[in-house]
Amino acid sequence: MSGGNVSTVACVQCEVTAGARTPPGGIVLETERFLVHGLLAPSPIAGWLVVAARRHVRWWWELSPEELSELGPLAARVMKAQRAALGAEHAYALALGDVLHHMHLHVIPRYASTPKRLWGRGAWDATPEEMLKDEDHANAARTLRDALASASSFL
Ligand SMILES: [Zn+2]
Description:
This protein has helices at about 10-15, 65-85, 135-150, and strands at about 25-30, 35-40, 50-55, 90-95, 105-110. The protein is of the alpha+beta class. It is globular.
């Protein structure tokens, strides 16, 4: 444990960036500075995506001006795709950072069928029975990737 080399600290998000871990459905969208993909953990909401910095930065306060400029339009673009391609009524943008210490933003669609107790922060409170299959997440990820494939989609 001596030396304290930061690069030896395991970071799940950096493993995704490096291609060592693949979320269901793979990477939905990549830009020079960010990756967009589904959750690595079980979730009850199809199309729940994470926008994460490619660089290992602890949290939003470490983002560069260029990263900060890209983040808002990118999140809005993802939300538009969730609405247009998956029929979401609404999309949440939630950033907590208690568990994963690598800057990310959850962009979570809300559907007409989403039970009220899973709205907003409640999406983390789903029971094991409410979790969707990996296959369902992969299908939603592929649908969003196709919708976002054109560089001009949802700008
Ligand atoms: Zn990292």
